[in-house]
Amino acid sequence: MELFKEDKIYNFLGKGKIFFVASFVLFFLAIGLIAIKGFSFGIDFTGGTVVQVKYTNVAPIVKIREALAKNELFKHASVTEFGSPQEIIIKTAASTDGLNKDIGDTTKELLKGTGDFEIRRVDMVGPKVGDELRTKGLTAFLLTLVAIMATVTFRYEWRFALAAIIAIVHDIVITFGFVSYFEVDFNIESVAALLMILGYSIHDTIIVYDRIREHIEESKNTDFVMIVNEAVSRTQSRTTLTSLTVFFVVLTLFVFGGDIMLGFSFPMLIGVIVGTYSSIFVAAQLVVWTGFSVDSYRQMLAEKVKNRIEKEKMRAQFEQGIV
Amino acid sequence: MKLNYRVVLLIFATIFGLVFSLPSLTQSQSGAKVTLGLDLQGGLHMLLGVKTDEALTSQLKSIASGIKHFTEHNDILIDGLSASNNTVTFELLDEDDAVVMDEYLKKVEGTVIHSAKGQYSLAMTPTAIEKLKVQAVDQAIETIRNRLDQFGLAEPTVAKQGVDKILVELPGIKTAQEEQRARELISRAAKLEMMAIDEDRAMRANEMTEMEAAGFEDKLLDDALEPKVKHLVHEIAILDGTMLTNAQVGYDQNNRPVINFSLNSEGAQIFGDFTGKNVGKRLAIVLDGKVYSAPVINERIGGGSGQISGNYTTEEANDLSIALRSGALLAPIYMMEKRSVGPSLGADSIKASLMALVSGFGLVILFMMFYYKLAGVIANFAVVINLFIILALMSLMGATLTLPGMAGIVLHIGLAVDANIIINERIREGLRAGLPARRAITEGYSKAMRAILDSNVTQILACTILYVYGTGAVKGFAVTLSMGLLASMLTAIVGSYGIYQLFMDRIEKSKNYSLWFGMTRKVA
Question: CATH second-level architecture of B5-42+342-517?
């Protein structure tokens, strides 16, 4: 089976302005959303407690709320159904630091008399832990960006690296704009999703870059816009196919993974779509706008080759004992 | 068909993957296995903090206690002995004793001594404080580990995290009762003290405030069995649990469980001295700040053994004796983070993620076969081997498979076929351009290789940084991901290439690109 006409070169860059406006609007909408609405951070970051309870019969949510309201720890607690009518999640910002009797034990006591239940999960994070997670996570993220910038500069050119970084930030910001909009919990799994999107985004971008580099090296064409159009067109079938397979598996995670994996599967679902879009329409476009010049790149390549030949010559002379 | 080195490598990789993933897949007893994270198998995970400041306070009290014993033993008169604000202070009443006193104090390590006109003050040096804090954490880890080992749970993990945190993981916990028992055992200070009752004022114990008590260098303690009864004891203990050598469950004359303990020779000496001098007075046995009994001393007690009785069940007495044997915690611990997952939820999570794994895998495999025909089959083969290799590598590393890790593997399947897609698209391009099959395949691989290498190297680098700076789940995720990247480079670039080389003659002869590469349009 073949989905794409192999020899057709699409004029992706001709529509560059439209995509730029679309990306620009989405990007700043996402930033606005995140700034105003923020995330519903999970307890991993804010500290607090999540208790998952499964009842034998349908969980009596009203009764549960009443029972919990008696205790100070659950003053602003939320009780919501989780996956099935038998199962509920209790969330509160409070946590306890004693080992003898913790908030899980308290929950069990309070719920006595609301029916036949089993406490399946108690997650409690103290206030200090979240802070550390945030700073450490942010450092890791920024350092990763620096590392990507360095490798791409080394293998390609700094303009490519800059465009790749912008594409990554674009993908992540828009994805998490959706996370904010749909009020999906932002927890430690979401950080994993963020990293995955980062990896996916850079991977897709590099595949396109590789084609651009190849065309620069192998063709005589000096029109960078044409080179980019051709590279993007040629890699388009691969980009789409891979996105499809990744999308399949993310979709199964989203469908079968249940509410517990939502913090991971939801951002992934959006991230794959945005990542695919940006590697076709954004990343390469940006390189053009940074003022990349094919001629000077070829000169640089020629220089490199010259240097290498010279070095080899020197070495040969050295080995023969001439110098 | 000729064997080539790539196929040989692939066969080795396949055998490696199968052999080393087998123990994990069958959950056999022997061999390195992937351990399931607590979120998948159920259990208790706790991150504990140590209140190191209180270790300092108790160290000072212990110094004070030493001074008290020394002066009494040598008939030196002192007054106003107290330990507060990081210093121990007292007044030496007879300056003639100063030489002996100074001699003794010099031996107390890690302190700075100020003395003027008989007024003494001892403060701990900053280095000694720092050392003590580190020691308190290390000692807590050691103690908790000892206690859990004796408690008899399967595979407890007790490890230091960061500078002053302790990670405790107990996969063996199955019920809420077990969990609570384990928590109590871990957190128990198990601080045993022998304290003298202040007989002169003991009558007023129930009316006295703590302030008043402190004024007499006394302390008010609750009775362990009768909540309303209070005991007035001298603030500085006669001896403490550090001199304890053993604690065992025994039974008293009414067949109730009690704990029999014995002291080391130094403790026995102090105990003997004290009881000899205080016949007729009462001695309180204090555990974790509560008085368990306060018997009247009838005679000098040598031998250094005693008993704690306190309406215990056998289980409680057993846990307490474990705690006493493994030593007191220098500093109290508190809970910073707790995650407890019931075994039924873990099983549900495994089921859900396996479901996602199998169906995601199925979809990808069908798609590849449909789109690329035989080339798709080769790619699928590579992906299956890839999965085994990941599992094998994780088993050998003794890695832990958590829920996010599982999601990472599911996702990896989608990405692992990517290398094959890039290669196949390249081969198709070559064929369309009219290249003969052999050249199309060789060039397809060499061109695809550069892109794949560039991308994977960048990603592995990113994973390394995440591994170094990340915490917990992120670390696990980085490991799974980089292993997946390595495995997919091996199976896609080396492995599937080898298979093509194996069938090269046939492909060339048949020229059936629709069957081999799923191409539907005529090649020019």
Answer: Up-down Bundle (1.20)
Q: For A199, which of B337, B413, B481 is closest by C-beta distance?
A: B481
Phi, psi at A9, each rounded to 5°: -100, 115
DSSP type of residue A72:
G
Best B316, B335, B417, B428 residue to mutate vs chain A (most A CBs within 10 Å): B335
The reported pLDDT for the residue numbered A6 is: 60
Looking at B242-342, list the stretches that DSSP marks H as alpha helix, in order from N- to C-terminal side: 265-277, 314-325
Q: Give the position of tokens 């859990």.
A: B148
Convert the pLDDT of each residue in B142-196 to its tens digit.
888 888 888 877 778 888 887 888 999 888 787 888 888 888 888 887 888 888 8
Number of alpha carbons in the 13 Å side-chain half-sphere of residue A281? 20
Question: What are the sequence ranges of the domains in chain B?
Answer: 5-42+342-517, 53-128, 142-339
Q: How far apart are CA B11 and CA B13, in angstroms?
A: 5
B313 is written with which tokens? 């069940």
Out of B349, B364, B518, the one facing A248 most closely (by C-beta) is B364
Residue pLDDT, tens place only, A161-172:
999 999 999 999
> Does A201 lie in the same domain as A82?
no
Residue A88 falls inside a structural domain: yes
pLDDT tens sequence across B27-69: 777 778 888 888 888 889 899 998 888 888 888 888 888 888 7
Token pair belonging to B229: 């009864």
pLDDT at A5: 66
Same domain? A120 vs A133: no
Considering A33-42, A67-76, A167-176, the range whose residues carry the highest mean pLDDT is A167-176
End-to-end CA distance of chain A: 61
Distance CA(A176)–CA(B481), nearest Å, equals: 22
- Are A260 and A230 within one domain? yes
CB contact under 8 A, A210 and B454: yes
Query: What residues does B169 pair with on adjacent strands?
Result: B45, B157
Angle, CA A176 vertex, CA A174 and CA A177 arms, to 5°: 60
Reported confidence tier of residue B523, pLDDT bands at 50, 70, 90: low
DSSP-derived 3-state class of residue A124 = strand
* Residues ≥6 apart with Cβ < 8 Å to B205: B220, B230, B231, B232
CB contact at 8 A, A30 and A278: no
Q: Please tell me whether residue B116 adopts helix, strand or coil conformation.
A: strand
Task: Inspect the interface and report whether the beta carbons of B477 and A121 lie closer than 8 Å.
Answer: no
The distance of B391 to chain A (nearest Cα, Å) reads 19
**Domain with A212 in it:** 13-40+129-292
The structure's pTM equals 0.77
CATH of domain B142-339: 3.30.1360.200
Q: Under 8 Å CB-to-CB from B495, ≥6 apart: which residues?
A: B6, B9, B10, B13, B382, B385
Residue by residue, what is the 3-state secondary structure of B56-91?
Answer: HHHHHHHHHHHHHHHHHHCCCCEEEEEEECCEEEEE
Q: Do B352 and A210 touch (CB under 8 A)?
A: no
Six token digits for residue B118: 């008989």
A135 plus A94 within the same structural domain: no
Which residues from chain A sit within 8 angstroms of residue B470, using beta carbons?
136-137, 140
User: Which CATH code is given to the segment(s) B53-128?
Assistant: 3.30.70
Residues of A numbered 122-151 whose beta carbons fall under 8 angstroms of chain B's beta carbons: which are they? 122-126, 128-129, 132-133, 136-137, 139-140, 143-144, 147-148, 151
Which of the listed residues A104, A125, A146 is the one where a domain comes to its end?
A: A125
Spell out which residues of chain B touch residue A256, defining contact as CB-CB under 8 Å: 352-353, 355-356, 359
Helices (H), chain A: 16-36, 43-46, 61-69, 103-111, 127-155, 158-181, 188-218, 224-256, 262-281, 283-289, 294-320
CA–CA separation, B460 vs B479, rounded Å?
Answer: 10
